[in-house]
């Protein structure tokens, strides 16, 4: 009986030791995961010097996140931030990274910072690169405190007019069915594009002033529908089957 009780005590002790080791292991894993999560969603380590900070920022420039609510500047794992799908797309998408360069309010030591992004945007929107980059450098030197330079405004307006979602484009393109009706099938591509543009961003009929457009129409040699000075159309009568018509 004593031997059996001793063996039971030994088993209990070994089980307790095993449970203690497992609990220590899980607690250490939780602590390490917590530290890792803290490191991933917090600011850079304080022990880093300026060179290490700039190197990390240059290599991982696309991971820079500025969020006042979270209080973090750089985050490696962006999925843990609870961002929406649209917000993730905007942060990871290359054109939107280029657009975020325009609104950079921080102090920039390198005068060529963001030139590549501006060049890509100019090529995409077909804007003059040289004047835009020069204006952007002046804008950076002023740290964005002054007004936007005139040569930078075309790019700024192009970025501001990007549609929020593709549903807006689909909704506008559905109006093509109203424009290309059976009575207006002879419209060319240029005219249809102009009518689509007016339908999408044009003013309502209550604010539309057609006088200057009608005047330019008449000055181009065209006539109004009720014009009596224009020559009437001469209808030719085909008399080839006139003998047949008499029999009928």
Automatic annotation (TrEMBL):
HAT C-terminal dimerisation domain: residues covered: 155-199
One Pfam family here: Dimer_Tnp_hAT
UniProt cross-references to InterPro entries, sorted A to Z: HATC_C_dom, RNaseH-like_sf
Molecular-function annotations in GO: protein dimerization activity
Protein name: HAT C-terminal dimerisation domain-containing protein
Lineage: Eukaryota, Metazoa, Ecdysozoa, Arthropoda, Hexapoda
